[in-house]
Amino acid sequence: MTWFFLPILIVASIAAWFGARGLAERRQRGIHAHSRPAQFGAWALIWTAVPALVVLIAAAVFGPAIEGSLIMGGAPEAVSELDPLRRGAFFGDARAIGAGQPATQIWPAPYAELLPAEGARVAGIGRMLDLGTVVLAALAALLGALFVFSRIRPDMRARNRVEGWVVALLFVSSAVAVLTTVGIIASLVFDSLRFFASVPIFEFLFGTQWSPQTAIRADQVGSTGAFGALPLFAGTFLIMLIAMVVAAPVGLFAAIYLSEYAGPAFRATVKPVLEVLAGVPTVVYGFFAALTVGPAFREFFNGLGALLVGGPLDGIGQYLMLVQNQMALVAGAVMGIMLIPFVSSLSDDIINAVPQSLRDGSYAMGATKSETVKRVLLPAALPGVAGAMLLAMSRAIGETMIVTMAAGLAARLTLNPLDTVTTVTVQIVTLLTGDQEFNSPKTLAAFGLGLTLFLVTLALNIIAQRIVHTYRQQYD
Amino acid sequence: MKFKIFHAPDGANSGSGDTDTRVLTPPPVLHSADPDAPTKITAREVSVFYGDKQALHDVSLDIPDKTVTALIGPSGCGKSTFLRTMNRMNDTIPGARVVGRIEMDGEDVNAKSVDPVLLRARVGMVFQKPNPFPKTIYENVAYGPRIHGLADGKPELDGIVEDSLKRAGLWEEVADRLHSPGTGLSGGQQQRLVIARAIAVEPEVILMDEPCSALDPIATARIEELIDELRERYCIVIVTHSMAQAARVSQRTAFFHLGRLIETGDTEDIFTNPRERRTLDYITGRFG
């Protein structure tokens, strides 16, 4: 209900803007004033809207707690004696009846009789609080507006006051971004610590057995839970390696072609297309991997195996015949394809940033284009390109959808690209999807994995940015 | 517009006997031209277009060997564009088109049969801003010989590097740090390194595009000295904004204005007794 106040507040703020501007225009007529009328208008608008918004936000944050204590304070004895869960349900129904809706359950004697009266009381408290909020907000808006209107004088520095508010707005925006990140990290660290209280960190980092199913009831068998994350790290690393083997050369060569050889028309077409490719949702790549590439690879390896069976390479043939749709190679290859636009776009920018004077110098020595690329441009761009590769790696490590769909779920400690493997991200997904209880080691393991993943990608990003940064300085 | 292509120097007109009240401050000319120097490069009716825009109009000019020829003129007058036609550097600019005939030793440099890559090995170029490659001093100088396969084995390459650095007057300053980065040198040293890099491939012509405009006066003096030494072996064409520099280092001068060649002749004549009003205005600093 308090939200009906918002349109009124907007109208009032706009009215304050026009009013303050008009007043300022009149008062500074013929005088060389410090600030322009529109700046007084903006100042009045801010002082009308912000105090009221602060009241509304405070009401939204603290309102439920105040309402709860008011409701509890006047509750009949029979209701107060209920356990908290039942009490909550009772007041929920009371609120419903107060609003004219039916109760969700049938309450036994004394409660059934108490409900209508309690419903009326609860609704009354709600109305009172809403009214109080609106009155407070209106009062705040009024006081704010009065504050500004009483200060509209030619020598008032409204210009600087508005500037201060703009700075405050920008600061709050950046603070929100930083603080949320800090909050996420804090929650990761906090829950990881709870996890490491039940699973030793050494066992987590170096254990080779990953089977996170734990017994929920004492009589369950066969799910003891093992939290050695090494197979997950190995799987992540293997898929990242395959992806980089695909993406690094193709992306780099594409960048060289685009920046040094391609004509303006070709470049103008291909570059946007590459950038669009970089924006394709990874889940699309995921089902491309699972439904197209996976079966194609399996058929190829099965066919190859069939050829080898019975020959001198019989063992390998037997193995290849049994290769499945899901394997590290499929996930890695498709992830590599996903990373090509990313690598080429970054590398293209970096190669373009090499000063033209170096190209001229090399051409003037009688070097061909490829000699110039190989001997001058790439060495000059190498730090930046290395940074781009590290960024691509950290993306590959953090990628989830493709591996979920194409790499499998078996936590195997292997470097065989034809095996199904699983990665850190996939395990986090499987640990946290579905119904979970949030204090078993099984779910907490996700936070341990998340923290590890976060630290690895953070380190990669810091190294990459350092490299790119030092490279930038070289030519400024 | 019609121009006298080769203005033969006449000794009677070279001194300062005929005191010219029109010339406010003619810069002193240091070296006289050698009238017997054979022509190295001949340009006839050369025009350059960047897209639809014509940057150079029908320039015809003879450039003698073992001589420093200065191209002067205000910014945007086409002197750098003309310089770049001589080693076909305009080929690397998309949309650039050159018409007319440029001959080096009687051979058309724009002919289909001429590979610009090999042409550029014969015509070295030094740019406005020192542009050493992000490699060591040694690797910078060895760049050309490596590309063109001029050295058999390390000792010969070492010899070429040392010889080039000596001729560029840089050897004594860098002999003990050949393997430190070329970009760590001072601006003047970098420019001499770039000159060493250019002469390492034994070119016949060296083109210099305002080689001192990014340098301080002392480094400039050093480069000018070097240009004078290099004149013994090479045909040098230098684009410069500084009239004083043109007077100090060159024997021949060509004045460009608005994409056209206005006047050419011995530096002494151009600076003491120009035939064109615009040349006079430019060298005396009335515009430009």
UniProtKB/TrEMBL annotation, chain A:
Recorded GO MF terms: phosphate transmembrane transporter activity
Sections of the chain in a coiled coil: none
Positions of the ABC transmembrane type-1 domain: 233-464
Keyword annotations from UniProtKB, A to Z: Cell inner membrane, Cell membrane, Membrane, Phosphate transport, Transmembrane, Transmembrane helix, Transport
GO biological process, any: phosphate ion transport
Signal peptide: none
Record-level GO cellular component terms: plasma membrane
Gene3D superfamilies the UniProt entry points to: MetI-like
Cellular localization per UniProt: Cell inner membrane; Cell membrane
PROSITE patterns: ABC_TM1
Segments crossing the lipid bilayer: 6-24, 44-66, 131-152, 164-190, 232-258, 270-294, 327-347, 376-397, 444-464
Family note: Belongs to the binding-protein-dependent transport system permease family. CysTW subfamily.
Listed name of the protein: Phosphate transport system permease protein
Protein species of origin: Brevundimonas basaltis
Organism phylogeny: Bacteria, Pseudomonadati, Pseudomonadota, Alphaproteobacteria, Caulobacterales
TrEMBL record, chain B:
PROSITE patterns: ABC_TRANSPORTER_1, ABC_TRANSPORTER_2
Signal peptide: none
Stored CDD domains: ABC_PstB_phosphate_transporter
GO BP, sorted A to Z: phosphate ion transmembrane transport
Cytoplasm listed as a keyword: no
GO cellular component: membrane
Keyword Heme: no
Keywords of this entry: ATP-binding, Nucleotide-binding, Phosphate transport, Transport
Source species, domain of life: Bacteria
InterPro entries, per database record: AAA+_ATPase, ABC_transporter-like_ATP-bd, ABC_transporter-like_CS, P-loop_NTPase, PstB-like
GO molecular function: ATP binding; ATP hydrolysis activity; phosphate transmembrane transporter activity
Domain ABC transporter, chain residue ranges per copy: 41-283
Protein name, as recorded: Phosphate transport system ATP-binding protein
